[in-house]
Write a structure and sequence with these properties.
Blueprint (H helix, E strand, L loop, with lengths): L3 E5 L2 H12 L7 E5 L6 H11 L14 E5 L3 E6 L12 H5 L4 E5 L12 E10 L2 E9 L1 H11 L1
Parallel strand pairs: 2-5, 2-6, 4-5
Antiparallel strand pairs: 1-7, 3-4, 6-7
Helix pairs in contact: 1-2
The structure holds adenosine-5'-diphosphate (ADP) and magnesium ion (MG).
């Protein structure tokens, strides 16, 4: 499988990349984000929200697990960190099969509920302002999205 990587050098650059990604998405798409605390998962989500035309400020849903925003498409922003040691299903399939875009922080904690077709993005801290983003598309749709996004 080909590797798709991008490096960003500021928060704004990550937001702009995510904003461009949002324009390539279609209803029902699922994006999963991996990376340590402070890597930039929520920052990336802010960019996706901006690209979808969400007006409200996006912040971490750690304590609510899911937050829903309205843009050109609905955006379902999930942070499932608190589900690490449980296999609680909080109705994921409703979101993943819905018309909105789902974006999931710490998605590895809910592996059993994820759809086969999805775009995983691993974000790694390289330096205070530098992040490595590794894109792993599953399925033809996301393969072409990633090619379009970063070649
Ligand atoms: P996470 O959701 O992964 O815990 P956040 O997005 O909440 O991470 O935090 C990322 C932090 O890193 C923010 O304070 C952001 O300003 C900072 N940052 C610095 N450089 C970058 C970059 N290139 N991309 C994303 N965030 C960056
Ligand atoms: Mg976060």
């Amino acid at each position: 499988m080909s590797e798709h990587k991008a490096e960003t050098h500021s928060e704004q650059e990550t937001i702009r990349l995510a904003e461009r990604l949002a324009l390539l998405l279609k209803p029902g798409d699922v994006i999963t984000l991996e990376g340590d605390l402070g890597a930039g998962k929520t920052t990336f989500t802010k960019g996706v929200a901006r690209g979808l035309g969400v007006k409200r400020n996006v912040n971490s849903p750690t304590f609510t697990i899911i937050k829903e925003y309205q843009g050109e498409l609905p955006l379902y922003h999930m942070d499932v960190y608190r589900l690490e040691d449980s296999d609680e299903d909080i109705g994921f399939s409703e979101y993943f099969n819905g018309e909105g875009i789902s974006i999931v922080e710490w998605a590895a904690f809910i592996k059993e509920y994820l759809p086969d077709n999805r775009l995983n993005i691993k974000i790694t801290y390289l330096d205070e302002h530098v992040r490595l983003l590794e894109f792993r598309p599953r399925g033809d749709h996301f393969a072409s999205v990633v090619t379009e996004l970063i070649g």
